[in-house]
Design a protein that fits this description.
4-stranded parallel sheet, Rossmann fold, 2 domains, alpha/beta, globular, single chain, 13 strands, 7-stranded mixed sheet, about 40% helix, about 425 residues
Amino acid sequence: MKRRARRTNAPRTGAALLVVLALALAGCSGKATEGDGKDSDGAAGGVKTGQGVSDKTISLGVLTDMTGVYASLGKSVTQAQQLWADQTNKAGGICGRTVELTVRDHGYDPQKAVAAYTELEPDVLGFAQFIGSPFVAAVEKRIDGQDKGLVLPQAWSANLLGSPYVRVVGATYDIETVNAIDYLLTNKRITKGDKIGHVYFEGDYGENALVGSEYAAEQAGLTVVEQKIKPTDNDMSAQVAALKKAGVKAVVLSAGPRQAASLVGVAAAGGFNVPIVGNNSAFAPQLLATAAGPALMKDYYIASSTLPIGSAEPAPKKLATEYAAAYPDDVLDNGVVSGWTAASLYGELLKTACENKDLTREGIDKALLGLDAFSTGFGITHDFSDPAAPSTRESVIMKPDSKVPGGLKVVQEARVAEPAQSFTFGG
């Protein structure tokens, strides 16, 4: 049976966020004045250029969170992208130009996020990073209607599908959740007739993941017990109590690392011993040094569209070594892989656009639509030929392990569950 994905238009922080975003967008619909050599329609050196490209540089924007709810992720993603840029420039750059990253920390604040996009958009070719699906959604009409610069969000909501300029790198949260639940079914941790809990952030991320759990439950004869939370809810005691009372046999978590530590720790302390699976952003290796560490390593799992940074495969091993050398005081985590993958994708597109003599936003978009087999050696090949689909439906299932760099080890290689393959996306 096929099912269309439910569209959730409300941002993660509800009606208040909508108001703030609307205010931030007011008066921002006009294009900035072109000039300073950054928006020429000329063909310097035989290559057509536009916004963010001069005869010496290619400028890409980075809209990240280094001080908010996803601070650890944002730092890792951004530093990995800077490492990519540094290595690229050391090797001679791209198309005779050095690559420059212009970074803004929005602290997961909606007004700051939209303001930062508005500030940088006229002066960059596109965005190698934009954390926060509600914030990306807030400017998506501008991107599609007039800006048309490629944005690679560090977000995986199916609500972002369909735009030729906002492209999700990896499986969307709904597909990822279907794959995670299938892992539990395949390993006989749950079975037909069981109840499963789902603790999720309100808004795009959590509610898109909920679509996946509801679909997986429908296919497998399960019942979903919902527990909606806010990103500011850090104590999961009430949620654990409710799920334990309901008699659930497993829990899906679509939230952040803080909620993961609380949920798993409280469950273990209360003797609520059920497997818990989380989406890709529901873990940080720093958690393993907390009181929740032993419980996380016992029966907690993460689904992701990439091998972990601690994998022994050549690409992760090489990146881990190079990142540790560049940032010796910082922790390795999967944000490094995610940031590197997005930056490498942009690099591939820049090289193709250069070969096509078109380093404009239009040239980048054409290059992406022609890319149907992209891989950086992290376990999954991505197809970007269809804007209405995620670049993959596969997920790797991982388990926390303090002995592994980055804190995660693979327990199931990349695969797509049968229900995830038949799942359809809708408006």
